């Protein structure tokens, strides 16, 4: 197995957001297309589309030679097109439709930033902004189908869908709120709070297969894991970066892996696959005991008294104190000092963008 390697592409702007093009589920190979957005360049920022797709082998090159060459090769992103953007690019989602909504977020006398956007099934969008407003959009409608004007009295920094009609937001006073978009009320259905000092939360992502598990990061660099079924405080707090955590992502197909980036220049790979193996121990014991007693492993009475006392864990991110020790953290950007604002991960390739005008490609990550 090839070792992971990283390569930098220098561009003439600070990168605020980076996103892979979604790959259709039936596709054999992942897309090599990604998009970037810039910030801090006055009114002349850019959205750029890039390609780093590998060149396929030819008849003159054997597959083994091709694979060895590709694993070691530095893949240089190629700029395909660009679009000038007035103002900072604060969030970025690649869609299959083209539409514009003007002045969704505003104060009484002027406009303000739209800070986040979430997409569900390519036909339902939610935006949040500095004005504390939430907009629900549908393609083909030129105005929001619903607006919650006073969703919050402070800046909403990010949003994600939990379910088809349920979204979660984080704000600048350390609150996580859940909104049932089917209801006519303008109040959140749940409010979760940070313990201790109210530090701003910058980013949010949900577990791809267990939507009740949500991760957030904020100004103090701490990784917070929340269980939407539990009380209003985080179930796990993990000391992380030494400065603001700007973005985090669960791996879509291996969610025991999570990635985060920070103002301190680091990009961390959090690997809880060992804890996941630990959490399966009770099931293995139960199956062994069932075989000894001639019972089906699916029987409701298969647990022996000893096995029944071992706690089962639904996810390593909601694990017991013992399995919290089964956590591997790798800094993928050792030596980098420029703030890393954004990242995205597909398969074993991670992209990230910095304030130093660099797009980093990290290849051949070990994903368990």
Tag the structure with descriptive keywords.
single chain; 368 residues; mainly beta; Methylamine Dehydrogenase, Chain H; four-stranded antiparallel sheet; 24 strands
List the topology elements.
Elements: E1 5-10, E2 14-20, E3 33-39, E4 45-51, H1 63-72, E5 78-85, E6 114-120, E7 124-129, E8 134-137, E9 146-148, E10 156-163, E11 166-171, E12 175-180, E13 190-193, E14 201-206, E15 213-218, E16 223-227, E17 236-238, E18 245-250, E19 257-262, E20 267-271, H2 273-279, H3 281-292, H4 305-308, H5 321-324, E21 328-331, E22 340-346, E23 349-354, E24 358-363
Antiparallel strand pairs: 1-24, 2-3, 3-4, 4-5, 6-7, 7-8, 8-9, 10-11, 11-12, 12-13, 14-15, 15-16, 16-17, 18-19, 19-20, 20-21, 22-23, 23-24
